[in-house]
Structure formats: structure tokens, C-alpha cells
Amino acid sequence: MTSIEAYLSGERLYGDDLSPAQIASWYEDEREGYAQLVERYGWAESEGGYAYHPVNVLYGYRYLPKNAFFERALGLGSATGNEFLPILSRIGSIDILEPSEKLKRTELNGVRLRYHKPSIEGDMPFPDAYFHLQTCFSTLHHIPNVSHVMRELHRCLAPGGFLLIREPVHSMGDWRYPRPMLTKHERGIPLTFFRRRIAELGFTVVRESLCLAMNSFLQRMLGKWLRRPLTEYYTYVYLDMALSRLTAFNLHYHPQNLWQRIAPQSVFYVLQKN
Question: Three-class SS of residue 259?
């Protein structure tokens, strides 16, 4: 199996074994990548919109302890912090690791946001066992050295704390060539990779959910008839739960034909540190 075949098959994660110079180049390419897509396609993140609240609530937040208060929360690549809105009343303070200078705000509905620049190496500027809640929604697939970043998330999470991850688990096309509406390097993360790393780090898996079955296709077909993205509708997300379970058997990291695309596109993890 050639090196690219190993990556496209999902056996290895492209970018997780790059040299420091290659990581630095990747980081610079991705630094404003998402912000540029927001500007180019008119997405509403910079104005306060957020299209994934129902997804995050139904696949993630509802599995957190109901009466828990999270004194310190971390958002990895959280931009303006909107992803915290559904549970904002249960959070004391929020730190955000965000490379972009364009997707920032000083506060979120009265809660101050503290921004930090991520290091190129992936090291995080926080003490051990510091956070009680961490979110990582569609961020890791922009990062080259995912294994190291996941180790850092584990290190600075307090025992008993929770890490929520939502990431694509398909290749998102051949990343060696330009793809519309995607940044230069982003690629999905194989489900087998996640399972290995989570087990190695010693997280307890509270919930693993495959989700967003054929979401890109359904958004193209149905989105023109709707005022908002599909993922903003709770009814759609409930239907997606059923569809994702029915099609989970057909998950392929790098789909080669239409049939192989009839499958979930993402995974949602609720993890707890022992």
C-alpha cells in the first residue's frame, strides 16, 4: 500500500506525522482559512449566527450531568464562542484557542472571553487539570498533529471533566487538490484513529454517535427551499439520528462512488476524564 493509499484508506491520518517545518506551513495556510470562507460565502459566524446548536445539544450537551456547573471551559477553535450559548448559564469562564484575528469578540452574553493563540507545535498554555469542560467542534480536522493536540486536551482537563468532540470522519475529498467551500488542508479524521487515541489516553466514552448522514447532499437538495441550514432544525437532527444509525454500516473514509456516500459524515463524542 503506497503512502497516499494508506491515508485515503483511513489506515493513517494525513498530517499527524509531519515535520516541524511542514506543520508550520500548514498552520499558516489554515490560520485565516475559515474566516476567509465566512467572508467568501456569507456565512453568519462573525455576526453571531451559528448553525449547529441542535446538533450540539441533541448529540452532546444533553449527556452532560444535568445540574453540573463548569467553572472553567475551553473552546478549541471556537471563533466567536457561539457554540457555548446553549449551556452558557452553567459556565463560569471561557478560554478560547483561536488562530484567527477576524473571528473574535470580547464577551458572550455577559461572559468574558479570553483568547489565546494556539502554538504551532500544538502545546496549550494552561496548567494541568485546569478545565472542567472542553469543546472541539469541527476543529481537529484543520490541525495537522491531531495526536499531540488530543494529548494536550487530556492533560489540561480536570479529572471528571468532559470533552465534547464533533468532527468529520470521511476524507472530504482528495485534499491534494483544491475543493470548493473547504480550506486548503482540512480533511476528515478516520473513526478508527479516534477510537485508538481515545483508548490510549484513557478517556471514558460517555457517548459515541455517528451523525449528519449525507448532510452535504441533503443540504444541497433541500436547502434551497429553507430559510436556514438543515442543522438549525431540531426536527431534522432527530431524523438524522435515525438515518445515521441505519446507514452507519456503510461508513467509508474515502467514498469512491454514490453508494459509499450513503453514510454518516461525522462523529460526536462525549468523553470524560477518569
Answer: helix
- pLDDT of 48 strictly over 90: no
Which residue, among 236, 207, 229, has the nearest Cα to 59 in the 3D structure?
207
CA angle (165, 170, 86) in 5-degree steps: 30
Closest of 268, 271, 274 to residue 83, by C-alpha: 268
Q: What is the CATH number of the domain that holds 82?
A: 3.40.50.150
Separation in Å, CA 64 to CA 133, 165, 269: 10, 13, 12
The counts of H helices and E strands in the chain are 8, 8
Q: What's the CA gap between 36 and 18, in Å, rounded?
A: 25
d(C-alpha 168, C-alpha 248), whole Å:
14
pLDDT digits (tens, 9 = 90+) for 211-255: 999 999 999 999 889 989 999 999 999 999 999 999 999 999 999
Q: Count Cβ atoms within 10 A of the Cβ of residue 271 and give its class: 0-12 exposed, 13-18 middle, 19 or more buried.
A: buried
CA distance 15 to 23: 8
Reported confidence tier of residue 273, pLDDT bands at 50, 70, 90: very high
Residue 1 reports pLDDT greater than 60: no
Q: Domain range spanning residue 61?
A: 3-272
**Average pLDDT along the chain:** 91
Total of domains in the chain: 1
**Spatial separation of the C-alpha atoms in residues 46 and 40, rounded to whole Å:** 12
CA dihedral 119, 124, 126, 132 (to 10 degrees): 140
The answer to whether 213 touches 250, Cβ cutoff 8 Å, is no
